[in-house]
Every structure is written in structure tokens, then in C-alpha cells.
Design goal:
Elements: E1 12-16, H1 31-42, E2 49-51, E3 54-61, E4 64-71, H2 78-89, E5 96-102, E6 110-113, H3 122-131, E7 138-142, H4 153-157, H5 166-185, H6 188-195
Parallel strand pairs: 1-4, 1-5, 5-7
Antiparallel strand pairs: 2-3, 3-4, 6-7
Helix pairs in contact: 1-5, 2-3, 5-6
Length: 197
């Protein structure tokens, strides 16, 4: 798929991955959406428009025009919403920033990456498949590994945090929102240096 090179009406599309519906609120798989919610609140952007198979809101962060998006397709088809928005606004992959959970990182740890594989995260896999490119920045939020190898992965990522993990995760959502702002207003290298520990 070829996206346009001309100046877009939106500078950045910021996507928080998760599953819609109350049953999934506060689960590990919704870490990306939870961080997006913090970013939205910090910048008075309301995720109340239904478009592109997502809940979306537009606003400004540091003088940049942004669209924040929470796909409503469920995790495994997140790329459909992203592809529709990018095609509509004629955006390139380097204007896309994705926030997602990562079971390879301890709870509360975040990693900022310029590009890369999906790392087994099915929302990222869907986005890469739908836009035909993995060359976009992402912020991965640690939610912890399965407690033992036999534990079902789907059950694990759809589980809620333990009581002692909640403060770590709240801090991680704040850090991820800060990292997203840094990517948008400064450089990804600056965000990596400041937030990837």
C-alpha cells in the first residue's frame, strides 16, 4: 500500500492498543490504551469520535496536530483502523506511533523503539500486515511474563494486575504518555534516552 507524501492535516496518529468493552478494562492487554488515556487527559483530547473503526479524538501536543485512536476491532484486527486513518489522511509510517503491552518486559518498564518486528504482539502484527511496513515508532509497556510456561497466554494477557503491580503500571502509563509527547515534540532518540531503562 502506498501512502501519500504530501503534507497531512494530521502530523501524528497515536494508537493505543487494547480490547473494547468493560470486560477488558484494566487488563494487561489494554496497557497501550491505558497509556493513551493518560496522554489524552494530559492534553485535553477527548476520545469520543467514532471513525475508522475506532474511538478517536484530535488535538494538539506541543504544536503538532495529533489524532489519538483506540481501535474498536479487538486487538487482533487493530491494523484495519490504523490503515483506514492513514489512508484518509495520506500519512506515512513515520507519522504513526503505537502504544502496546509487552509480556517480555517486567511490569512498569517501558521501551521506546524506532521500528521492528511485532515481538508476538498481535495488535502490532495486524498493523504491520495492514500497512505493509514495520518502520514506525512504538512504545512498549511491560506487563510481565506468564507466571509459568504452562499458563495460557490469552488468559494471562486478559488478566488484571495484581494489587502490588497497580502502582508500577500507573507510573508506566504516565511514563509512556511522557515518552509519546517527547517523540512528537522532540526526537525518538530523546525519548529513548529519557524513558527506555
Amino acid at each position: 500500500m502506498i501512502f501519500g507524501k504530501k503534507k497531512s492535516a494530521i502530523d501524528w496518529l497515536i494508537v493505543g492498543l487494547g480490547n473494547p468493552g468493560m470486560a477488558y478494562e484494566g487488563t494487561r492487554h489494554n496497557a497501550g490504551y491505558d497509556a493513551l488515556s493518560v496522554l489524552a487527559k494530559d492534553h485535553n483530547i477527548r476520545l469520543d469520535k467514532k471513525q475508522f473503526k475506532a474511538l478517536a479524538g484530535t488535538g494538539e501536543i506541543g504544536g503538532k496536530k495529533v489524532m489519538l485512536m483506540f481501535p474498536q476491532t479487538f486487538m487482533n484486527n487493530s491494523g484495519e483502523a490504523v490503515r483506514e486513518a492513514m489512508a484518509f489522511y495520506k500519512m506515512t509510517p513515520d507519522q504513526l506511533l503505537v502504544l502496546s503491552d509487552d509480556i517480555a518486559l517486567n511490569p512498569g518498564v517501558i521501551r521506546v523503539r524506532k521500528k521492528g518486528s511485532d515481538g508476538g504482539q498481535k495488535g502490532l502484527r495486524s498493523i504491520i500486515g495492514c500497512i505493509g511496513d514495520d518502520n514506525f515508532p512504538r512504545i512498549r509497556i511491560g506487563v510481565g511474563a506468564k507466571p509459568h510456561p504452562a499458563y495460557d497466554l490469552a488468559d494471562w494477557v486478559l488478566s488484571k494486575y495484581k494489587k502490588e503491580e497497580r502502582p508500577l503500571m500507573e507510573e508506566a502509563f504516565d511514563k509512556a504518555a511522557g515518552a509519546a509527547k517527547t517523540v512528537i515534540t522532540s526526537t525518538i532518540e530523546d525519548a529513548m534516552n529519557k524513558y527506555s531503562h
